[in-house]
Amino acid sequence: MNIIIQNNSMIPIYDQICSQIKSLILNEKLKESSPLPSVRSLAKELKISALTVKKAYDLLEKEGFIATIHGKGSYVLPVNPNVKKEEILYQIQLELEGIIQKARNSGITKKELSELVEMLLKEES
């Protein structure tokens, strides 16, 4: 599994793992019923504590992305289309917030940014 940990990030490692696995599931790179690496093997691969991976898996299970069967491992669950859309909208929101902040820091006005977005949306149609 191709997960990249940024040790200098303010985002906790378990959260980085969780969001990357969610993204793989939502983008269908991890399909329904696909097994996830064991907690120990992923921890060894990422050179982190197994407790950190366990925390990420627990969060994914709580959010309904995976199921863990004791002694058998963790598997990808079917994705609810509403959950998928909500998660994608949330990711877009985060990206837009970053873009808005970058625009503010660069002195771009709200009007200029709105015009740019409108222009790009018109080009799409």
Q: What attributes does this structure have?
A:
two-stranded antiparallel ribbon, 2 strands, single chain, 6% strand, 125 residues, elongated, mainly alpha
Fold and architecture overview:
The chain has 125 residues and is mostly helical. The protein is 60% helix and 6% strand. It is built from five helices and two strands. It has helices spanning 13-26, 39-46, 50-62, 81-105, 110-124, and strands at 66-69, 73-76. The chain has a two-stranded antiparallel sheet with strand order 1-2. Helix 2 crosses helix 3. The longest helix has 25 residues, at 81-105.
Percent range for β-strand residues: 5-15%
Q: What would the principal axes of the Cα set say about the shape?
A: elongated
Helix coverage percent = 55-70%
Low-confidence stretches: none
Overall mean pLDDT? 93
Spatial strand sequence of the major β-sheet = 1-2
- Structural class, by secondary structure, is mainly alpha
**Quaternary organization:** single chain
What is the CA-CA span between the terminal residues? 37 Å
> Mind summarizing the main beta sheet?
2 strands, antiparallel
Taking all Cα atoms into account, the compactness measure Rg is 18 Å
Helix and strand element order: HHHEEHH
* Helical run tally: 5
Number of E-state strands:
2
